Amino acid sequence: MKYIRLFRLKSTLIYLFPFVLALSVGIQQTNDGIAHGVHYTWVTVLFAYLAYFMGSFFSSTLNFYADVPADALHDGFYKDQDISKQPFVTGEVSKAEGWVVMGITGTACVVFSFLVNLRFAAFMLGAVLLLGVLYSHPWFRFKEKPVIDIVTNATGAVLILIAGMAIVSSDYPPVIPIIFGWLFSAAMYMPSVANDEPFDKAAGYRTSAVVFGQKRLVQAMIPVVAVMIPVGIWGVLSSALNWEYRLFCLLGTGAAILATATVWLLFNPPHIELNPDFYLVPLAVLLLLYFIVAIVEMT
Fold it and tell me: Which of 87, 88, 161, 223 has the most Cβ atoms closer than 10 angstroms to its Cβ?
């Protein structure tokens, strides 16, 4: 059970979404002769998933390892799990054990990535480097750098999108889902940073919410979503995009508008009193749809 909490399943599923989305589109495009395909098999796709999950496990473990000062103060509300009871805070996992876990999962991520192909390895390991090491490690701590904390997470999601495409194709995803995905990820990450402000501040961290304040960070969602909306409409109306991307642009635009409205309505400092499952469940359903599409396209 302690390792399941260390794995942070819900956060893992969030970043799995761009991975599966690009994979499903990539398989379809290579089958149709639209994209330049690379050799792949069921085994290499399995290795790609294993690389992703090992990389996510490594990143979440390092994040928990480094965030004990703030997590120990957290009240556990409105997060993917009660992080005040994360294994490094409770003592269920020692620092030495944590380094063993990170050593195993980090090595596994590298090995499985290279078993897919070099292009996939570059982007998958780049995402883990950014979202894991640079974001959390005490030497870098992008988490504690205003604006960069949000930019890091949005950029990491795009790297994972490109990695998903790289499993089956040497092409990049189209520019529209890349821009839309970056803006969507940035906007959706802001409420999480805002909710952590009291505990990050008490721990001496300098996140975007600590430096600019919760209210201003919540307000910043509006211009980001305002820029995202025309990009989303562009994507929905673009006949050059696969239906998977167009559906993501459609539902993502609606979800971002709804999220901005609900965050404002439910912002009761120091909390945005919104259950993350309100958005995680629909995301998981769409993720399952794209996963099934990928399997069907491979058969």
Answer: 161
- Burial (Cβ within 10 Å: 0-12, 13-18, ≥19) of residue 186: buried
pLDDT tens digits for range 120-167: 999 999 999 999 999 999 999 999 999 999 999 999 999 999 999 999
Cβ neighbours of residue 288 closer than 8 Å, sequence gap 6 or more: none
| Alpha carbon distance 193, 131 (integer Å) | 15
State the Cα–Cα distance between residues 6 and 65, nearest whole angstrom. Answer: 10
Quick check: helix, strand or coil at residue 139?
coil
CA-CA distances (angstroms) from residue 141 to 130, 206, 259?
10, 10, 28
Half-sphere exposure in the Cβ direction for 16 (13 Å, CA): 25
* In the block, residue with structure tokens 């929905």: 236
DSSP symbol at 37: B
Q: What CA–CA distance (Å, rounded) separates 206 from 197? A: 9
pTM above 0.90, yes or no: yes
